[in-house]
């Protein structure tokens, strides 16, 4: 079975940017040879409130959902971009509450399985 290069980034939530404390809330995975771009997110509101008791949980959930929507086929500002272009835009450095970490690479024969593995390892407790 052949394996292809993929890139991924952890989606992080940093409720008080000035403090630098964060939790992992998702994974974004791109595999160009397989035309694959997908994000999986899950917010642990209890952990997030431990960092900032007054954080806007609904606002954070909407921002996380935007990552999933940007990977889909639906219309939106990124719909006309290539999958690689979307991945680059989504992983561009930001100083906002929801942001991605550094991009890493690996090899996979199945991007869906790799996304699930990374999600379980990096986001779930």
Describe the protein.
The chain is α+β, with helices and mostly antiparallel strands. It has four helices and five strands; from the N terminus they run E-E-E-H-H-H-E-E-H. It has helices spanning 45-51, 57-71, 83-90, 111-122; strands spanning 4-13, 23-31, 36-41, 98-100, 104-108. Strands 1, 2, 3, 4 and 5 form a five-stranded antiparallel beta sheet that branches. Strand 2 (23-31) and strand 3 form a beta hairpin. The radius of gyration is 15 Å and the shape is globular. The protein starts with a strand and ends with a helix.
Which terms would index this structure?
single chain; 125 residues; alpha+beta; five-stranded antiparallel sheet; 4 helices; 26% strand; globular
Write the layout of secondary structure elements.
Elements: E1 4-13, E2 23-31, E3 36-41, H1 45-51, H2 57-71, H3 83-90, E4 98-100, E5 104-108, H4 111-122
Antiparallel strand pairs: 1-2, 1-4, 1-5, 2-3
Q: Give the SSE string.
A: EEEHHHEEH
DSSP, total strands: 5
Helix content: 25-40%
- Amino- and carboxy-terminal Cα gap: 31 Å
Q: Write down the overall mean pLDDT.
A: 94
Largest sheet: 5 strands, antiparallel
Tally of contiguous helical segments: 4
Based on Cα principal axes, name the global outline: globular
Radius of gyration (Å): 15 Å
Low-confidence runs of at least 5 consecutive residues: none
Structural class: alpha+beta
**How much beta, percentage-wise?**
25-35%
